[in-house]
User: What shape does this take?
Amino acid sequence: MEARTVPGMLHHVEVYCADLARTTEFWGWFLGKLGYVLYQEWPSGLSYRLGQTYLVFVQAETRFSDRSYHRCRPGLNHLAFHAASRFQVDEMTDLLRERGLHILYEDRHPHAGGPGTYAVYFEDPDRMKVELIAPETSTPETATVGEHRPTTDARMAIVEAAVEKELACSAHDLAHVRRVAGLCRHLAENVPEVDLEVLDLASVLHDIARIREDTDDSGNTDHAAMGAEMASGILQSAGYPEQTARHVCACIATHRFRGTTAPETIEAKLLFDADKLDSLGAVGIARAYMLAARYGEELYSGEDPDTYVARNHIGGTPTGRIKALSAHTPNLEFEIAFKRIPDRLFTQQARTLAVRRLAVMQAFFDQLKQELGGAS
Assistant: This one.
């Protein structure tokens, strides 16, 4: 479908250059990475088009080439282009360096435009400044806790379809995924440096391999590690850049509470925190008993947690995998794992929410113990 013309929008920009062949080699490569296509071509020039806007490059006549271009003189200073995400900026930066091009303001990269910007600046063959800038994230459209606004992006639709196909477990279904996505966005509201595309993808894909782990009686499957592998293929099929996929997969690989590798990026830390928060509070109680029903667990166990861990956790440690899920109970999970969550979280906001939700769970299990013991 032809893009709609917006009154006032730039129609085209025409740039005269000292060496058309050299300019074509550079701009054809760079604009091609952004989705531009060759639009017009004639002996002394050519143009590249994206939507309704196009850029024209023309060989300057010899009689006008005695005065070289300088961006600080009156006239055009630089051209700035939208990037799809911060990781596209990072990817382009790496490619520019591989081509031997100088990154401007290296000491302040990628925030040379100010603390609220994320961009790379460089020069074309005539030393005109070029900027590739990521979308602003300081005032993102946010979702409330438990709500994730669906995207119409075709690539995300492919990802969501793959997740829906894999997830059937009642406690790790699409509802859990959406709550985690909403929590991720909620926690990211005051974190301007976060890449929301990576965060959204990681939250949607984080439990993609959960069913495969739960149905592996050998206990050898780690849904975080396997999920990262599965996500890589899904993201590639959906058409996401390789660097975006790598960052998403790194988030997934480190989101597990009983995992041995800690999250490193802010996106990975936010995913870790959001996923753990969804196991706490009233939602956490409901999910715990959904799992208990699935595995035939008892309502409550009065066994000493340390004794239980020694006999039913691999390695006899709280972080070890559970050997027999049918011997587990929600209150044991609360004592062994859930109470430790606030100390493992990375953001203060998540820790505050975790403490509140733990209080809800503590009151529930205290009441349950009394009722099971015959007290009212």
Observations:
- The two ends are 68 Å apart (CA to CA).
